[in-house]
């Protein structure tokens, strides 16, 4: 490489009170032939400014992802081949962060909300949000609200019928409490969980219009698309299943994880591009408020028939009752 070459571009960078169980829905894969440019790579490595930009983004210069990120400058922005579509507070962030350890996975950090809020912006806008990838790498994104958006299935199918969909689910009762806990942290003056749960506390009538309750009726939402406790108890096993589903080599294994007793869920022993262990942010692992056990029991009774139908639809008993 010639050190006299000038840099043409400076590079820039790019939930879970518990986590869920992964369920996959295959809706194939598309590949793009990409030619890497040696001269472009030389320009990048010859530029201290470019190195600094990547390092400040949390990617260490001695990590494989650092090399990959430079190579991606000669890659192509593609529409995602896989999408994590839900559910909110099910462990979607944990799954995405764990998957990003894999060198063949490139993912958008923020939730694009394309198929629910930004669809009118068009596929060109959506593609521009994606990271550059090389042949053999998979582009991913995650937006949990897709699972409960009626228009999302048809819209994703219209983009590509080969898109692979991943759903992370957890016990709907604890999911609802987790959802409420997140809202409570932002709005301390909201009504109690109990008062929001019932339309009529005396009769035990559940308010299904409350989104925290509605999201947990998984069978209803899955009908539009036709697990997350294991992501906590066996993260390596779940990540193995997801890697197989995505057609990836099994690189993420149990050696990548340790269980954080304080947070109550698994963390990465070594984050991508770092020498330090990595857990999800402070907003994950919040302490849930104390909920009356009678309210919990009534919610379990409410969800039971929906859970039974969901078990039948997925062919798996998640044991939430």
Describe the structure.
Pfam families: Sulfotransfer_1. Disulfide bonds join 267-279. It comes from Naja naja (Indian cobra). By secondary structure, the protein is an alpha/beta fold. It has 13 helices and eleven strands. The chain has helices at 38-45, 48-56, 64-71, 92-99, 123-128, 152-159, 172-186, 193-197, 211-214, 218-222, 230-233, 235-245, 293-314; strands spanning 21-26, 76-77, 82-86, 105-107, 132-133, 138-142, 164-169, 198-200, 205-206, 257-260, 265-268. Strands 1-7-3-6-4 form a five-stranded mixed sheet. It has a two-stranded antiparallel sheet with strand order 2-5. The protein has a two-stranded antiparallel sheet with strand order 8-9. It is globular. The N and C termini lie far apart (63 Å).
Characterize this entry briefly.
By secondary structure, the protein is α/β, with parallel strands linked by helices.
Spatial separation of the terminal alpha carbons: 63 Å
Number of helices: 13
Q: Beta-strand percentage?
A: 5-15%
Q: Give, in spatial order, the strands making up the sheet with the most strands.
A: 1-7-3-6-4
**What level of helicity do the residues show?**
25-40%
What structural class do the secondary elements suggest? alpha/beta
Rg measurement, Å: 21 Å
Low-confidence stretches: 1-16, 26-63
Give the CA-based shape: globular
Q: Give the mean pLDDT.
A: 80
Largest sheet geometry: 5 strands, mixed
Active site: 89 (for sulfotransferase activity)
Subcellular location: Endomembrane system; Golgi apparatus membrane
Membrane topology: Single-pass type II membrane protein
Binding site for 3'-phosphoadenylyl sulfate: 89-93, 170, 178, 284-288
